Amino acid sequence: MSGQNGQAPAELLSANNITALFDSVDAFLFDCDGVIWKGDKLIDGVRQTLDVLRSKGKKLIFVTNNSRRSRRQYAHKFHSLGVSVSEDEIFSSSFAAAMYLKVNNFPQENKVYVIGGEGILEELRQAGYTGLGGPEDGEKRVQLKSNCLFEHDKNVGAVVVGLDPHINYYKLHGEMGVEPGHGFSILLSNEKDFLKSVWTNSDKRYNRYGTLCIRENPGCLFIATNRDAVGHLTDLQEWPGAGCMVAAMCASTEKEPIVVGKPSTFMMEILSKKFQIASSRMCMVGDRLDTDILFGQNAGCKTLLVLSGVTTQSTLQDPSNNIQPDYYTNQILCMPIEC
Description:
Strand content: 15-25%
Largest sheet: 7 strands, parallel
Helix content: 25-40%
Strand order of the largest sheet: 1-16-15-14-2-5-6
Order of helices and strands: EHEEEHEHEHEHEEHHEEEHEHEHEHE
Distance between the termini: 28 Å
Radius of gyration: 21 Å
């Protein structure tokens, strides 16, 4: 029986089909949030499963859309959770943003404004670029009053937007301070206030520093690390993802971004060259249909959905779902690889 788009329904991974999958691939690509960990808690069985895969000669690569950390910071997180992973095995969307600029010969004298975390800024520095913004702009405030012109850096040639828990109206446009009685309140003290403001004042708020750079600096690039709507930033629940910040930029600039994270295949192009492994000999393991699984399918990989993160079995099997992985399992602990 085929799915809505002609794809065969996903097979439950079992001892009967694991050998066919295992023999057909040389490398396993793992998403991290919802697959390896939830927040700062390692998912049961991850360490043992990765150890067995390595012992059987499989290459392991970790491909995450979460841009809050650099590859170095992710390697540290793995080690803090008792999992040995090298920096070279990690491909984050923060790294992808820097690599996109590098492979497209972005001038090093141009600056990059960052709506996102320290991970993006660190990867930009490693690639030889000057990044502005990031967490330090999280404490800045805008000024709304008559005849107030906000000056932005005319040397910004790219704006990179990723997950930013410290998003505020300054990043979305302006300068420090707000005068009493001038328009609506825009002092956003934390993520909760920002998210509340999005729902109540969406069309009014989406102007920002990044917007000015994109709209007024000739040729300024608009790069999104990813468009994930939600993610497992803690172990107990999902939180708004980078897609919320990217949507704000799309509204205020009236432009669509260059997306470097999943499901874009840009990261696949980079890692395929690095490891010299054909994508047809890889299996993408993830918890999201619209990013992880679609990324694998777009690149020609085998795909394995784990139900330990965003996607539920009911979502997978809903008749309206048109993205079917090759296989699915509850979590990577359930990969019967020793059978």
